[in-house]
């Protein structure tokens, strides 16, 4: 009987108690299938055009830290070295898009003998901050990554991902600029199907070096956003760079790949001119660009050699000229009245000067004509 009562009690509890929640299903793993790259690579036109190796005898970026906020970086690539990694997606450090690996290669791919491709500043220290598995960014995560990059000691931050305007993103940019960080961002891409183009952020924020895309013949690419206030152009069409799977990808295009060329130049400038703050670095890059022509070109194509070596004034060309304050008016007695002219003294001085000149003339005449007369046996006449 006791056993029957115990069984009844257990059955009653089972009927009253709520069913246990099902085990939480695991999130589906991110599909990590970037496009397949090539194991062969040729020297890209952008590398020939900018020719950053001319700067390397002076600096290749040593001592400068560049943060890449993107889709991660393939750490297995032989030309890429990353000093620090941060993942905000919870999906690991793999680059499942290829975007971040390409950006890293443009900035800092190591020079390898026999490999015709290399980065702009291979001597820099890279930090990879993975904030997406796509080619677009979330403003909240992007803002956090910018703040973290500044706190990690980045000297240059490259943002090749665009987002909408957002107060947190704006504050993050202001924070990083206040920490003397150069922020380089893609100006964004537009197509006819996009309708009316809008500004891209963080590129459109004040203080950010916004980069448009240039074609191999030096023109602004048709897709390069003209609404974003562009600072300079970088190569952004038919781009070749490193790719996941220890490979390379050609035919890339977009302001996403123009921005890292400028970020690499910013790193070279910071390494060569450590005394310059982020504002002066930005001005040096725009002041030495190869001249813009038309809307959306900014100051023109970035020029690594001039950006590093040009002799420029210390102040920015567009810095406001602060005039000195106007002097206070003088009192009536501040300046003494001039003394009256002494005419008698002037006349006496002129008379003495004239007499002195006559005496000098007489002495000269005696010294010249008397010897001449003696040579001619001249004697004074005698009276008969």
TrEMBL record:
Membrane-spanning intervals of the chain: 348-370
Gene Ontology molecular function terms on file: serine-type endopeptidase activity
Active-site feature positions: 70, 99, 256
Name any Gene Ontology BP term. Answer: proteolysis
Keywords assigned? Cell membrane, Hydrolase, Membrane, Protease, Serine protease, Signal, Transmembrane, Transmembrane helix
Q: Which GO terms describe its cellular component?
A: plasma membrane
* UniProt keyword Electron transport present: no
PROSITE patterns attached here? SUBTILASE, SUBTILASE_ASP, SUBTILASE_HIS, SUBTILASE_SER
Q: Which SUPFAM superfamilies match?
A: Subtilisin-like (SSF52743)
Q: Which Gene3D superfamilies match?
A: Peptidase S8/S53 domain (3.40.50.200)
Signal peptide positions are 1-25
- List the Pfam families hit by this protein, alphabetically: Peptidase_S8
Membrane topology value: Single-pass membrane protein
The Peptidase S8/S53 domain covers which part of the protein? 61-291
Subcellular localization(s) per the UniProt record: Cell membrane
Among NCBIfam families, the record links this protein to:
T7SS_mycosin
Q: Provide the family line.
A: Belongs to the peptidase S8 family.
**What is the designated name of this protein?**
Type VII secretion-associated serine protease mycosin
Task: Give the source species.
Answer: Microbispora rosea
